[in-house]
Every structure is written in structure tokens, then in C-alpha cells.
Design a protein that fits this description.
By secondary structure, the protein is α/β, with parallel strands linked by helices. Helices cover about 35% and strands about 15% of the residues. It has a domain at about 40-70 and about 110-230: Rossmann fold, CATH 3.40.50. Strand 7, helix 8 (about 205-220) and strand 8 (about 225-230) form a beta-alpha-beta unit.
């Protein structure tokens, strides 16, 4: 018997949403069924639904937004909170599965895409112990068999968490200049993959996705599908 057996025996897992005892993962079956995924992608500028992935409202948006559900859904909100603030790593796998199944229903050919998590600062990683978005991204990459580019985008400036800021304009200022691409041997400027699934746990004002996408676009990325487990836009 290994240590995992005794941990499960004396500290059985509980559903992140309702507290029901579960044997694996982060949600009980009942709560998992209450997560109703969106059916479309959304405009990266105004968040309008994009049936067929065709942007009529803002065709020059930096990215197409994908969100599995709304942050107002108590199940998704509980999962994200458990992952970010209670360090329940099992929630990352569940969020990644929800996001991957949502993405699989979108009319998009993922051939040639790389998966890139929105990075956090070194200070935030030391505080939390991990980058929650990287864990979700790893699950999505594994689901589709796509390369996970952990260091294609890095955080170079540490600032206050976006969740502490309510004003949309202040949120955008808070992330300006925070990201950079990594130099590879022989390069003078960092080059990013041509097509990217950019992953975050939640998007609210869209400031993080916009700043990260602008950085990637400047480094050569042509297509960006920005995926969040939940949105409140």
C-alpha cells in the first residue's frame, strides 16, 4: 500500500461545489452535469457570440474568445476558487476537461496549433506553488495531442492580481507591458508559434487576453483562440 491509499482513506476527496464525497476528480457527477457549456465562440473585442467562428462585429480583433461557461455558474466558480485559493490541483484536471470538450465542439481545425498558458509572475508562483493556468493548459494539450509551450510567453512584471481590481481601464493598465516572448538561439526578437490556443482560467474584462495576444502577435503569431474555463464579460 502506498501513501496515496492512506491519504484517500483518512482524507477522502470532496466535491469542490457541494462537498459530497467522491473517489476521484474535483466534482461529483451531479455537479458535473450542472455545468452547461456554451455552444459558440465569442468576439475578442465585444464578446458577441460568433456562430461558425465568423466575426462580423470586429473582424480585426486580436483573438477569438472561447469560454466553456459563465463565471456566474456556481459550479465553475467553485472549481476556479478551489484551484486558485485552496490549492486543489484536481480542479485543474476537471476544468481542463470541461474546456477541452467545449473546444472540441467548435468548428475550428486545430492542426498546427500550440497550447500556451497565460503565465504568472515568479512571485505569484512562489506564493501559490504552481501556475493554475499551466495545469489546465496541460490537460487541454493532452486531450488534443498538441504541443504545450510553457515558455512561449513569460511574465516579466509582477503586479496586483486582476481579481483585486474592478475598473476595466485599471485592469488594462495593470497588465500593460507584463508579458514578453522568449528569445531562441540566433534570434534578436522572440518568435512565438504561428497558431496558438491561449489558455486562462477565467476572463472578465478581457485585459489579460488582450495584452497577452498583442505580445504574441508582435512576435509572429497569426491566429489566437483564447480559451477560458469561464467568462464574466
Amino acid at each position: 500500500m502506498d501513501a496515496r491509499f492512506f491519504i484517500d482513506l483518512f482524507f477522502p476527496a470532496e466535491c469542490a461545489a457541494c462537498g459530497t464525497r467522491i473517489t476521484h476528480g474535483a466534482l461529483c457527477e451531479g455537479c458535473r452535469m450542472d455545468v452547461i457549456p456554451h455552444r459558440t465562440a465569442f468576439c475578442g473585442t465585444c464578446a458577441a457570440p460568433l456562430p461558425g467562428m465568423r466575426s462580423i462585429c470586429h473582424p480585426r480583433a486580436l483573438y477569438v474568445l472561447g469560454a466553456a461557461g459563465d463565471y456566474g455558474n456556481p459550479i465553475l466558480r467553485a472549481l476556479i476558487h478551489a484551484l486558485k485559493f485552496e490549492r486543489m490541483k484536481a480542479a485543474a484536471g476537471t476544468l481542463g476537461d470541461i474546456l477541452a470538450h467545449y473546444c472540441a465542439r467548435l468548428p475550428v481545425d486545430l492542426k498546427g496549433f500550440s497550447v500556451v498558458p497565460v503565465p504568472i509572475s515568479k512571485e505569484r508562483r512562489r506564493e501559490r506553488g504552481f501556475n493554475q493556468t499551466e495545469l489546465i493548459a496541460a490537460r487541454v494539450a493532452g486531450f488534443f495531442g498538441l504541443p504545450l509551450e510553457r515558455n512561449a510567453l513569460i511574465r516579466v512584471i509582477h503586479r496586483d492580481p486582476q481579481s483585486d481590481i474592478e475598473d476595466p481601464a485599471a485592469r488594462y493598465r495593470n497588465v500593460q507591458g507584463c508579458y514578453a516572448t522568449v528569445l531562441r538561439p540566433g534570434e534578436r526578437t522572440g518568435r512565438a508559434p504561428g497558431k496558438i490556443l491561449l489558455i486562462d482560467d477565467v476572463t472578465t474584462s478581457g485585459a489579460t487576453f488582450r495584452e497577452a495576444s498583442a505580445t504574441l502577435r508582435a512576435a509572429g503569431t497569426r491566429k489566437i483562440l483564447a480559451l477560458a474555463a469561464a467568462k464574466s464579460m
